Amino acid sequence: MSKAELWAESYFQRLNKTLEELNKHSLINHLTCMQFEGITDEEILKTETELLELLKSNAEDNGTAVPSSFKFDEYMKAFYKISNGLHISWDSHILQSSLTESEILTSAAAEKFKVAYDDLLQAEGFLSLLPLKNLISYSGMNIYGDPTDSRFGQEIRNQGGHFTYLDFYYFYNDTCIVLNDQDNSGLLYHGDDHSAHYDSDKVSDFVIYMEYLLATRFSVFLRHTAFHNIDTIDDFRKNNYEDIADKIHHENQYADIDDILKYHALDENLLEKFGDLEYLQSKPEEIYRIIEDLLEIVLEDEL
Q1: What is the CB neighbour count within 10 angstroms for residue 89?
Q2: What domain of life does the UniProt record list for this protein's source (predicted)?
Q3: Could you give the C-alpha distances from 91 to 23, 30, 151, 157, 192, in angstroms and in order?
Q4: CA 297 to CA 273: how far, in whole Å?
Q5: Residue 118: pLDDT above 70?
Q6: Residues paired with residue 89 on neighbouring β-strands, in sequence order
Q7: Would you say 210 and 15 are in contact if contact means Cβ atoms under 8 Å apart?
Q8: 10 Å Cβ neighbour count for 180?
């Protein structure tokens, strides 16, 4: 097996352990994970060919050099061969979200794929990693934005590239990927203000992004930790992502689920914004006390 294939296989093994950890945690309320049938080499080639035509069109429209080829990153392809897209969502007993059910599917039907929608608190953890073909078109997806409307997205297009959603995980924020035949192909950027702004100084790539998401249990509110200056990204890449999971775990301030829940409730002020005493008092007494012990507060005083 190639290094890319070994990484992808390891990732899904570690993902299953993370899901078990979340599922067993006393304060996790709902948990959903949907894996999908892996994409074939023929389907990858078809998507690469369609993307090449799109890049040629962009280049001709903007007077830039017309590309002769396009290939997805090997690590990204290895991942998508296992699951063509991935959805994960979870919430805790601390905050009432839009989630109402739990479901773990290792081969979900394509129509079950979920993206973020307009809601105050949809979930505390959410991943909506788009299927490969939807990096070209959002057809069939309930996606309402367009990152190429942003100044940064237009710059990429003007250079002949394609700038598209990769992870449509939150109403306000998203993660986009640059696709072209240049050195910046495969770089990821963090969007905010409903896809209006992208920070060009902070980047990620597919492997680094997915590893940080796994380390932070796909927290919506810790997404920013996956983005760094380009030198940091280059260092990981030069070493073929050697020991990347261990390095990220060592640097991660939020290594435990408890740490993440406390960050959500207190550092992000979600308890203040969305906390509901009546909702919390409807929980079993044991859960209520665990929440107070974790947050080191008296809920009646705070809410």
Answers
A1: 26
A2: Bacteria
A3: 11, 6, 34, 37, 22
A4: 16
A5: no
A6: 32, 126
A7: no
A8: 22
Amino acid letter for position 262:
K
Q: Which two tokens stand for residue 171?
A: 């109403």
Question: Strand 28-36 vs strand 103-108: parallel, antiparallel, or unpaired?
Answer: parallel
Residue 145 has what pLDDT? 81
d(CA 122, CA 125): 9
pTM of this structure: 0.96
Stretch 9-13: mean pLDDT: 98
Structure tokens of 298?
């008296």
Which stretches does DSSP call E strand in the chain? 28-36, 86-92, 103-108, 125-129, 162-167, 174-179, 188-192, 197-204
pLDDT at 144: 79
| Residue 220 near residue 174 (C-beta atoms within 8 A) | no
CA–CA distance, 74 with 167 (Å, rounded to integer): 19
Q: Distance between CA atoms of 233 and 79, rounded to whole angstroms?
A: 19
Residues near 150 by Cβ (< 8 Å), separated by ≥ 6? 191, 195, 196, 197, 198
- Which of 54, 47, 56, 104 is CA-nearest to residue 76? 47
Instruction: State the pLDDT at residue 250.
Output: 86
CB atoms near residue 37 (< 10 Å):
15
